[in-house]
Amino acid sequence: MNSTLSSSSAALPGTSSGSAAGVPPLARVTMALTGAVLAGVATSFGQAVPGLGTVSNSAGPWFVVAVLLVLAAGVGRGAGAGARARGRRSSVALAMALGVVLLELMHIGYWAATNLRGYVDTLSITNFWVVMAVPAGLLAGAVAVAARSSDGRWRGAAAGATAAVLIGEGVRGLLQVAATTGSGTWIVQIVVGIAVVVVGMALARTPVGRVVALGVGIIGSVAVAAVYVGIGWA
User: Residues 19, 28: contact at Cβ < 8 Å?
Assistant: First the structure.
């Protein structure tokens, strides 16, 4: 079976042929999928832990986890400047699709763990968060690919987009739910988002890249907060 997996994994577009740890690409993807389910399970249990309930109820950390899992899977690694156009598009598309799958698997893990703990939780394709996992997952996959780019502008955009999700949700939390959840978690999330922008500006290494990181961070934060507030999900 191992030989079959190794040979078939070579056909996956957008995955590297090897890694420093020598982990086959298909194994990396499988571990990312498993990690997504476990993240959902951990979220359910985390909601019962004092001090972690609000964090476990926020979407920003899930987005960050999805980005990290796409990076860990190595999908989209072939989308650099030297890749052929068709292969580059295929790599980006695969990474974006994986981002959606990972977020939906987090929902499945959360649903399963919550019901096994004796609480009622339903999983429906019309559920707001299940629906939002599609655009969020597409963005997470694109961010993971952009973060690996040799172009500082794309790296800056990746940092700005990640920060926007964190800051935008943090602002929404302060405006809509801080009265019941407290403001500490949301303030920390905003601070982390700002730190991501700062790091992104440093890693961009070019003036244009730094402007992109800052601009995407600011505009994206306003957009995310506006969507949250407009929908009125408190």
Answer: yes
Instruction: Supply the pLDDT for residue 49.
Output: 86
Rounded to 10 degrees, the C-alpha dihedral 20/84/214/95 comes to -60
Give the pLDDT confidence score for residue 221 in this predicted structure: 97
Does pTM top 0.90 for this prediction?
A: no
Q: What are the backbone angles phi and psi of residue 169, rounded to the nearest 5°? A: -70, -35
Which tens digit of pLDDT belongs to each residue from 56-92?
Answer: 888 999 999 999 999 999 886 655 444 455 556 778 9
Buried b (16+ CB within 10 A) or exposed e, 166-175: bbbbbbbbbe
Task: For residue 123, give Cα distances in angstroms to 34, 105, 120, 167.
Answer: 19, 11, 10, 27
Q: Please list, in sequence order, all residues whose beta carbon lies within 8 angstroms of the beta carbon of residue 219, skipping any fewer than 6 positions away.
A: 164
Does the pLDDT at position 180 exceed 50? yes
- Our CA angle for 145, 147, 153, nearest 5°, is 110
What's 84's DSSP letter? Answer: -
Helix, strand, or coil here: 120? coil
